[in-house]
Design goal:
The protein has helices spanning about 15, 25-30, 30-40, 45-50, 55-65, 70-85, 90-100, 115-125, 145-155, 170-180, 190-200; strands at about 5-10, 105-110, 135, 165-170, 185. With about 200 residues, the chain is α/β, with parallel strands linked by helices. Strands 3-2-1-4-5 form a 5-stranded parallel β-sheet, with helices on both faces. It starts with 6 loop residues before the first strand and ends in a 6-residue tail after the last helix.
Length: about 200
């Protein structure tokens, strides 16, 4: 039996940014062991989420450089990578999101972008400026995969979690949505996403 979906929440990170850690980070730090150390100890996943709590990149970057002054060049290269990548849209995936909106589906976006990165993306992609467009995690002081952000989203919009579909490129965020009672699929590529949407009777 197909579960009816009344609302779709789309994480916009991988849709708008070409994020492949094997490519850009190898350019920043060619040595594999050094690269592993850097992302385990300096630009960690936890720090990446923390700097998105409504901060602009320069502020978050300065805090990190203060902690790791010997890594300043690499830390700045990390930010440069994100800003370079914003224009590299996954065209087909953006088309899927726009197609869902144009087809009349109730869609909002959820993001952990740093404030200035999100502002730049918003200038490039008109759908991010919709009235019911984007919930920025940093503005509500909750970061995915914190289950509470999913509860807040359903409460604010009056949604039924069982009939809400979450699309995200990160497995832990998908698991967080499921823990909150949502339907959820992991975005890996456009073809797979179309297939997964089809399982819910959604074609675009």
């Amino acid at each position: 039996m197909t579960i009816e979906i009344n609302h779709i929440v789309f994480d916009i990170g991988k849709v708008l940014i070409h994020y492949d850690p094997n490519i850009p980070f190898s350019r920043i730090i060619p040595d594999e062991d050094e690269r592993r150390w850097f992302f385990q100890n300096v630009c960690t996943h936890d720090w990446n989420l923390e700097q998105d709590r409504g901060r602009a990149w320069p502020e978050a970057e300065a805090l990190l450089i203060e902690q790791y002054p010997d890594q300043e060049e690499r830390i700045r290269a990390f930010r440069k990578h994100w800003h370079e990548m914003v224009p590299h849209a996954y065209d087909e995936s953006v088309a899927i999101m726009e197609g869902l909106i144009e087809a009349g589906h109730d869609v909002t976006m959820l993001t952990n972008f740093a404030a200035d990165t999100f502002m730049r993306a918003r200038e490039m992609y008109p759908f991010l400026n919709r009235t019911r467009g984007v919930t920025v995690s940093g503005e509500v002081f909750l970061i995915k995969p914190d289950v509470e952000i999913y509860h807040k989203h359903t409460q604010d919009f009056g949604l039924d979690p069982t009939h809400t579909l979450f699309i995200d490129d990160t497995a832990v965020n998908v698991e967080g949505a499921r823990a909150a009672g949502w339907q959820a699929v992991q975005f890996t590529d456009a073809a797979t996403l179309r297939h997964d949407l089809g399982a819910y009777g959604i074609t675009v």
